[in-house]
Amino acid sequence: MPQEPPExxxxxxxxxxxxxxxxxxxxxxxxxxxxxxxxRRTLTLDQIAExxxxxxxTEGLEAVSMRRLARELGVGTMSLYRYVPxxxxxxxxxxxxxxxxxxxxxxxxxxxxxxxLEIEARESRALYLRHPWVMQINWIRxxxxxxxxxxxxxxxxxxxxxxxxxxxxxxxxxxIDGYVVGTVRQEIQYEAxxxxxxxxxxxxxxxxxxxxxxxxxxxxxxxxAAMDEDSYDAGxxxxxxxxxxxxxxxxxxxIDRRAPGRPE
Length: 264
Hints:
Residues 42-102 form the HTH tetR-type domain. This is TetR family transcriptional regulator. By secondary structure, the protein is mainly alpha-helical. The chain has helices at residues 19-30, 45-59, 66-73, 77-81, 87-98, 103-106, 113-130, 146-158, 166-197, 201-217, 222-225, 236-258. The longest helix is centred in the C-terminal third of the chain and has 32 residues, at 166-197.
C-alpha cells in the first residue's frame, strides 16, 4: 500500500539522516506527535502494539498486516497509518513491548551474578516460547526503545559486582542470549515440523525403528549401539537447564581462577 512521505506523518526532520529509523525511534521514545489538526485520535500506541502482539502470538507474524490489524482495532487501514507509518515500525513497537522488564528481572537488585544470568536466560526462553514470532524478525541490529533498554539496565545493574570488565560482561550477556536463541529455535522448529507433517512423534520414530535396530545390530555403529536406552529421552527444558548449568559453571571457574591470591 502506498505510504505518505515521512514529512506528512507528523515526525520531525530526521535527526540521524535515516528517516526509516527515526520513525521508530520517535514513536518509541516520544510517542505520537502532538497534533491539533485532523480527526481526533481514538487509539494509543499501546493498544496498537498489544493487538498486533496478540495477533502474532495466536496466528503467526504473517497474519499481522496493516489491513488485518486495522480491522481488529475497528478502524480503517488509512487511519492506522496515521499512527504507525509502516509494518517495520510496527514490528519495532511490538518487540520493545515484549522485551520490557519482567517481574523476575525487576527483582535483580542484590542478587548474585549467577542468579541474574539464570533469570535472564530463563526469562528470555519463556519470552521466545510465548511469542515465537519474535524469532522470525531479524533483531541482530535492534531499534532500542525504553522497554528493551530498561530490561538491559536491570541486567547490567545486576552484574555490577561481577569481577569482569564491562566489555566482558556484555560478551557474557551475548553468549547467554546466543545459547537461549539456539536452543529455543530448535524447539520451535521441531514443534513446527510435527504440526506441518501431521505425524506424531511416536509414529515418526516407530517408522524408523526397524531400520535403526538393524543398523545397531550390524556392528557398524558400536559406540551408538552401546548407549543407554534412555540416552535420547531428555526433554527440551531438561536439556536447556543442563546446558545453562554447564555455561555458568564454566564462567564461575574462570572467575575463581582470576581471584586474587589464587595460585596459577
